[in-house]
Write a structure and sequence with these properties.
globular, TIM Barrel
């Protein structure tokens, strides 16, 4: 039986989704040692929006947050996320800026990077992938499958069209990232539809 690992997202997505990213570092520190003993594969801590929220709304130093949590969770790698070629906004930023951001995250205590492009334009990720590998991060390129039913409400996930589209995305990602199979993220409001899509997804993954 394959080993199943868990990643805790409380300190990243938990308050990002529920509290508009307003959890302070002081809220995180008391629970951190307990989380460190749970045996998680990683703890997600920072998306790029958290830097914006720390400075704009909380008046906190995001780099200090990373340093403090890295010390509080010595057994558990911290994970960060980056969206394509943008950081704290939807504007495109130079590769040199992303390069510096990745290197400073690594220097302050981040060990894993999840990186994605919502349009699956893998060319937008190659520079970030190269930098992340150069600093020794565990890299998790992600094919983001967002809201299929909102964008294409008439598509049945069991159709040949949807299967072929997914296979094409997987093939492109594997070719771009040295054969590494990407993680796929699902964003569905309908649990039954998500379950059906997941079933198709797993079958596709097994064939690839």
């Amino acid at each position: 039986m394959k080993e199943i690992s868990f990643v805790d997202t409380t300190l990243r997505d938990g308050h990002q989704s529920l509290w508009a990213t307003r959890m302070r570092t002081a809220h995180m520190m008391p629970i951190a040692p307990i989380m460190d003993e749970a045996g998680f594969m990683a703890v997600e801590l920072m998306g790029t929006v958290h830097f914006d929220a720390c400075l704009r709304y909380l008046r906190e130093d995001p780099w200090e947050r990373i340093r403090l949590l890295a010390k509080a969770l010595p057994k558990t790698p911290l994970r960060a996320l980056i969206r394509s070629k943008s950081l704290t906004s939807f504007n495109i930023v130079p590769d040199s800026v992303i390069d510096l951001w990745i290197r400073r995250c690594a220097a302050n205590g981040i060990k894993h990077l999840m990186i994605f492009d919502a349009l699956h334009d893998w060319n937008n990720l190659t520079e970030s992938v190269a930098v992340a590998k150069s600093v020794g991060w565990l890299l998790l390129p992600a094919a983001a499958v967002y809201g299929v039913y909102k964008i294409f409400p008439s598509i049945n996930p069991k159709t040949k069209f949807q299967k072929n589209k997914l296979k094409k995305q997987l093939s492109l990602a594997k070719a771009e990232f040295d054969g590494e199979l990407p993680i796929l993220l699902n964003s569905f409001t309908d649990a039954k539809k998500a379950e059906r899509f997941e079933s198709i997804l797993l079958k596709t993954l097994n064939k690839n």
